Amino acid sequence: MRTRIKICGITRIEDALAAAQAGADAIGLVFAESSSRRVDIDQALRVVRALPPFVSSVALFVNPTTAEVAEVVRNLKPDLLQFHGEETAAFCQSFDWPFLKAVRVRPGLDLLQCVADFAGARGILLDAHTPGAHGGTGRCFDWSLIPAKLPLPVILAGGLEPSNVAAAVRRVRPWAVDVSSGVEATKGIKDTAKIFAFIKEVQNADV
Questions:
Q1: In Å, how far from its chain's centre is CA 203?
Q2: 8, 15, 92, 178: which is the annotated catalytic residue?
Q3: What average pLDDT is seen over the chain?
Q4: Active-site position among 15, 92, 127, 178
Q5: What's the total number of domains in the chain?
Q6: Pairing between β-strand 154-156 and β-strand 176-179 as defined by DSSP bridges
Q7: Which range marks the domain in which residue 178 is found?
């Protein structure tokens, strides 16, 4: 199986195109107010309209209001929504739009129950648990905490970068990997060489 790849925290057209050219399957656009990688709808539209065919767009939120999500869905029509806060399953499903639910993994968390709670999601994104943060911290978590079989596709995130993503893929065998800070020059600005290196390492691990 080929591991899918999402490059998250895209803020510029040139970074989206670099991700596509390197072989990414999706790009992530952050609408969380607190994020240094946040984009507005006009900025996101420019990026999405520049994407070549077969590269998906994912709109990421952290504890948004219904109106905030509805506005993005109406104007941007992303391929997927990604909820990265404490949203309920009912809230995530209320937009009648495909979505991913992010879970911050820590010892003692029942991931099987989390997946059962969000059975309507297209996949479960597993990220590092960092107090006071909802992702994008560049920190890994203990991959041994992931059950061998989860009933939803697993998107692995949290501290991935070119130097460790091959090991992560071989260990976890996720459906997809998600990277943001691990391929950046500065927050919100991607490093093209790092994107290409990251994707090459994923491809090598799939062989």
A1: 18
A2: 8
A3: 94
A4: 127
A5: 1
A6: parallel
A7: 4-206
